[in-house]
Write a structure and sequence with these properties.
The complex is a heterodimer of chains A (258) and B (263).
Chain A (H helix, E strand, L loop, with lengths): L5 H30 L6 H11 L4 H24 L7 H39 L2 H7 L4 H39 L4 H11 L2 H27 L5 H30 L1
Helix pairs in contact in A: 1-6, 2-6, 3-4, 3-6, 4-6, 4-7, 4-8, 4-9, 6-8, 8-9
Chain B lengths: L1 E10 L2 E11 L4 E6 L5 H8 L7 E6 L2 E2 L5 H8 L2 E4 L11 H12 L4 H14 L15 H12 L6 E5 L7 H18 L2 E6 L2 H7 L2 E6 L2 E6 L1 H5 L4 H8 L15 H6 L4
Parallel strand pairs in B: 3-8, 3-9, 6-7, 7-8
Antiparallel strand pairs in B: 1-2, 1-4, 4-5, 9-10
Helix pairs in contact in B: 3-4, 3-5, 4-5, 5-6
Classes of the chains: A mainly alpha (258), B alpha/beta (263).
Chain lengths: 258, 263
């Protein structure tokens, strides 16, 4: 057996990784082309957007308001050292719109909806619901996966928009109402520095993050081993892999956008 | 109707089909019997195109399904129905929507027509009146019957049953056996049943195929199987723990094995 040979093991590992990425790519392309093919299952899309988007709102709300509040708190003490409290609105809004909004929102959705999606698909596999669709001559990818992928791409940017608004609101609450920063300075400086480019950048990031969450979760769930351990592993690796990918892609996109 | 020709399949070192030939006649009930790990479930999956054999042909209605692409396979699947071992109902949908599911996906029938069809199919399996319940609220035997109603809702020519009675109590199992026979007699549905329930197979089958570790060891009518003098067949239908089909995994002498320190 060649298992002892480290070079062979390295090569085998590399090949496995490559073929994994390849099949994940084919899987995604299949899912996306099915979004545009008949029959269009509008109800399925609405269901998935409700699950991934609407039901993530509460957790996004809580995360956003506290993120904004703590940013204002930290920013105030740093900025007041330079007598620059007036720039608090700028600091809060820039960090949220460019970075924290898209990233934190995506991480929360990955934790809540990504794991649930992987588990749901894995359990459908264990209980033969996926082959049952095949037997009814329905493409399981078109029926299960495509709506989830589109829901990710649509919901995460909208949630990020809410995150930005609520986060800045939280910053305003702490900065203006609690710490006494001038309201006009907070809003005025923010409005004059935030550009359309910042907002578009954040939006673009959130579209990519939505795609990453949906892609990783559906692929991990769909390729999970049809056992209890298989589903558990798929759920865990969905959260880990999508979180890491979000942070890596965030760096790449930021370096391209700046 | 379905012909399996020279079918060979392996999973790593395990051969689940060793160049087998068999034939499933139209409008007949054929039972594939075999112990766990005999390759019968794999054979069933390959006959419906859910898995590809290593080599060989499976001819369904004149078409070799091992070579079909996705689109043609889906076209052919509309002639097939399948009852899965775990029923495979969608647990997010109620009974009505589960049975209506293939109709809604494949037809443009109005709600009224769908309603009538569902009533007919649920009546056939004796479950009219549970439409609004969720699958989790039904017993194992009842979910199997709903699964059967869903499998026949598109009026397939062939219905495949994967261990239809395993895990059911004797009465529920008897109901399923009766339904399989009824559907075959009343609607002329070709039925292929994978099972290890020898008594049920002897009762409902027109033809029995006994599979043993990838080989067909017997084939014939229930009468022929019952009167077989092949020791393997006799052991199988009587359920004897030891015989030509060995109880032990190894022939090695026990004492020798214990004394032998190299494992």
């Amino acid at each position: 057996m060649a298992t002892g040979n480290p070079i062979a093991a390295f090569g085998r590992g590399g090949l496995n990784t490559l073929s994994g990425i390849g099949s994940a790519g084919i899987f995604l392309i299949h899912a996306i082309t099915q979004i545009f093919s008949r029959p269009f299952r509008l109800r399925r899309y609405i269901q998935e957007i409700e699950f991934l988007g609407a039901k993530s709102f509460l957790i996004v709300f809580v995360t956003a308001i506290f993120t904004g509040m703590v940013l204002a708190l930290q920013g105030y003490y740093t900025l007041s050292g330079f007598g620059a409290e007036a720039l608090l609105g700028v600091a809060v809004s820039q960090s949220i719109i460019r970075e924290l909004g898209p990233v934190l929102c995506a991480l929360m959705v990955a934790g809540r909806a990504g794991s649930a999606t992987a588990a749901e698909i894995g359990i459908m596999k264990i209980t033969d619901q996926v082959p049952a669709l095949e037997m009814m001559a329905i493409d399981p990818i078109a029926f299960i996966i495509s709506p989830k992928v589109l829901a990710g791409i649509i919901s995460v940017p909208i949630l990020t928009g809410f995150f930005d608004l609520i986060g800045i609101g939280g910053g305003y609450l702490v900065g203006v109402n609690l710490l006494g920063v001038n309201e006009g300075a907070f809003i005025g400086n923010m409005v004059s520095t935030v550009t359309a480019h910042d907002i578009w950048g954040g939006f673009l990031k959130s579209v990519f993050f939505g795609l990453i969450i949906a892609w990783v979760a559906t692929f991990k769930g769909y390729t999970a081993k049809a056992t209890t351990e298989g589903v558990a592993a798929a759920t865990t690796s969905t959260v880990v892999l999508s979180s890491v990918l979000i942070l890596v892609v965030d760096y790449i996109l930021t370096s391209m956008l700046l | 109707m379905i012909k399996v020709e020279n079918l060979y399949n392996t999973f790593g070192h395990i051969e689940t089909a060793k160049n087998i030939y068999c034939h499933f006649e139209q409008k007949k009930v054929t039972c594939i019997l075999g112990g766990s790990g005999s390759g019968k479930s794999t054979l069933l999956k390959q006959m419906v195109g859910l898995g590809k054999p290593t080599s060989g042909k499976i001819i369904f209605d004149g078409q070799d399904i091992t070579t079909l692409n996705r689109k043609d396979m889906y076209k052919l699947r509309k002639k097939m129905g399948m009852l899965f071992q775990g029923s495979a109902l969608f647990n997010s949908l109620n009974i009505y929507e589960n049975v209506a599911f293939p109709l809604r996906e494949h037809t443009d029938l109005s709600d009224n027509v769908i309603n009538t069809i569902i009533k007919i199919k649920l009546e056939m399996v004796g479950l009219r009146g549970v439409e609004h319940l969720m699958p989790s609220q039904l017993s194992g035997g009842m979910t199997k019957r709903v699964g059967l109603a869903r499998a026949i809702v598109m009026d397939p020519k062939v219905v495949f049953y994967d261990e239809p009675t395993s895990g059911l109590d004797p009465i529920a199992a008897g109901v399923i056996d009766k339904l399989i026979k009824d559907l075959n007699l009343k609607l002329g549905v070709t039925s292929i049943v994978v099972s290890h329930d020898v008594d049920a197979a002897l009762k409902i089958a027109d033809k029995i195929i006994i599979l043993f570790y990838g080989d067909i060891i017997a084939e014939g009518t229930p009468e022929e199987i019952r009167n077989s003098d092949d020791p393997k067949v006799i052991q199988f239908i009587n359920g004897s723990p030891d015989g030509p089909i060995p109880f032990k995994m190894t022939d090695k002498d026990f004492i020798e094995d214990i004394l032998d320190e190299k494992i």
